[in-house]
Amino acid sequence: MKKLKSPAFWFCLTGILFIVSGCSEFTGIRQPLYDGQPVEPKTEAIEIYETSREITGAEKEYYLRHTFSDTIHQPSLDYADNEPVLLTTREYVIGEDVPAGRVSLLGNESVFTSDNYDIHPGNLVIYDEAGELYFENLFHSLYGPLVAQVDFIPGHTLEITGMDTEITAFYSAEFPEDPYVLMDLPEVIENQGFTEVQQPLAEIEEDVFMLAAGIYEVGVHLEPGTYEMTDVYAPHNTELFLFQGEDEPRVFELLLEQEVIFVEDGEPVEATEEDGEHPQIVLEDGDKIYPYYVHALVLEKVATN
């Protein structure tokens, strides 16, 4: 007697025929959809981002949270021969309450432990006479940079909010040997000898520069050229604004360094310089750059314009 096939056999056979019939009409990978509408990849924007991490197109507006002051385009000020000034929680008019000039800013350290609670965080914002943003920074030991370098332009308003905030403005390119001369450094930090601070702008190797948060002029603080953005130290991913002429600033995303592992023959292999290139930025004479909210941005000059 002939043995009949089981129901499971016929179920599997039906499924296979269904799949094969579907594949006969396969025309390729389905086009991506958003809200039911086809999405076209922005090839040019993707290529620009892969080279320099520049944000272009409509997405750029998400990074321009404020209207920047036109005074950013002005030539940078010189360092004035003024004594340092201690800034606390209040509002200042530059040129009236504090002298104008280029300054290096240092915020005081904070200790958040219950045994040695001693905090001095502060948010500093500079507005122009029209109320438009010139510069902002959160001076915070854990969540923000403590060092910055900017211009104190006459007529601008300096607004500081925080808790027992202490920020010293030095009218010099570098901090002095005792940068905490006007501030009460938390005792536990002073006792441990952690009093050395990062300079706002330093050439750490030949053609390799480390910048703190701030606004810098190409041709004055940095030479024109093509630079690789090799390292970013910041509380989180952030951005660099590039001001050229009177145009709207260009925006470059600054991503924190992440370890990259490649797999070869099933084994993890550490990334090498040949496995990828650092994003590049071309800086022309007179440009202004604003690395936003960074402890340090490392730029390596790879070509002269």
Kindly summarize this structure in a few lines.
By secondary structure, the chain is mainly beta. Helices cover 11% and strands 34% of the residues.
Describe what this molecule looks like in 3D.
This protein is mostly beta strands. It has one domain (70-303). Helices cover 11% and strands 34% of the residues. It has helices at 7-23, 43-52, 187-192, and strands at 33-34, 37-38, 54-55, 85-87, 91-93, 101-107, 122-127, 133-139, 147-152, 157-162, 167-170, 201-205, 208-211, 213-214, 216-217, 225-233, 238-243, 250-254, 261-264, 267-270, 280-283, 288-291, 296-303. A 5-stranded antiparallel beta sheet has the order 3-18-17-22-15. A hairpin with a 2-residue loop joins strand 12 (201-205) and strand 13.
Q: How many strand elements? A: 23
Rg calculated over all Cα atoms? 27 Å
* Principal-axis shape: globular
| End-to-end distance | 90 Å
Highlighted features:
mainly beta, globular, five-stranded antiparallel β-sheet, 305 residues, five-stranded mixed β-sheet
Question: Topology, pairings included?
Answer:
Elements: H1 7-23, E1 33-34, E2 37-38, H2 43-52, E3 54-55, E4 85-87, E5 91-93, E6 101-107, E7 122-127, E8 133-139, E9 147-152, E10 157-162, E11 167-170, H3 187-192, E12 201-205, E13 208-211, E14 213-214, E15 216-217, E16 225-233, E17 238-243, E18 250-254, E19 261-264, E20 267-270, E21 280-283, E22 288-291, E23 296-303
Parallel strand pairs: 9-14
Antiparallel strand pairs: 1-2, 3-18, 4-11, 5-10, 6-9, 6-11, 7-8, 7-10, 12-13, 13-23, 15-22, 16-21, 16-23, 17-18, 17-22, 19-20
